[in-house]
Amino acid sequence: xxxxxxxxxxxxxxxxxxxxxxxxxxxxxxxxxxxxxxxxxxxxxxxxxxxxxxxxxxxxxxxxxxxxxxxxxxxxxxxxxxxxxxxxxxxxxxxxxxxxxxxxxxxxxxxxxxxxxxxxxxxxxxxxxxxxxxxxxxxxxxxxxxxxxxxxxxxxxxxxxxxxxxxxxxxxxxxxxxxxxxxxxxxxxxxxxxxxxxxxxxxxxxxxxxxxxxxxxxxxxxxxxxxxxxxxxxxxxxxxxxxxxxxxxxxxxxxxxxxxxxxxxxxxxxxxxxxxxxxxxxxxxxxxxxxxxxxxxxxxxxxxxxxxxxxxxxxxxxxxxxxxxxxxxxxxxxxxxxxxxxxxxxxxxxxxxxxxxxx
Length: 359
What we know:
By secondary structure, the chain is of the alpha+beta class.
């Protein structure tokens, strides 16, 4: 990403809203606009290409391994969706690319590669979506698992969201991973499996402000995201996980409560803890500046949990529970419409607010 792409981008006006009620109204307005634009784009695609699969197959795949014009095009989507995270995000993603060439780190933890797959419209070569991922070859004694994949970001321009597009993106990334592993001298053997992981914030770990800012910025909220991962075949790992912010000191108490998920093979109901921790350790090494596991209490807590079980159970999301939680969250927001959008109440976690309300 060139400095101009980042520096010329202004933070969204909705960060300046005064009350939760104003944020709810803006959320509705933005979601309605996204729905209208997406409907028009779907009509255009079907008129021009006849079906979504034909259109998807016409998209240009650009693999990005570092800064440059292609990454600038893809990053504009990230800015469009996640500009409320600035100025933190650009520094982090550039750091990920740098780790591809960090010989000392890769000698210590073994080879890994961070890449971005950008899908570009054949009309104007504008990027309409991107998926970024970390590929980690696994030791031979982890067979049948030959590699682990960590999906860092999957995002599609709101007006370009169409049926099965995200599924198409993940399949395209997996195809690239086979090529990447070949280039790394670690091809997937016959019968070898790739374990695909991701993690995302627990809905109740967000604050009302975070929840609404995320929904206004991306057009989907954390419940939508959880349900989407479920439709994609991801299963939650039955292990508690808290993730420190890259900006936080290792000694800080603050951490995000996240859920790790894996896309298992058909019929698979558990994942080896060794496979999970091998991937998670390389993910931390890529992500944190610098990675010092002995000082990261959240990493130590997770390691201790994983050491207690050779296999980690996979859980299915409870859609009925999700529906109930969504109703509770939305009800709380409407009941507190007059609350300060940036105040202490709006910064408290939903888990605390809903627990207190129940009491």
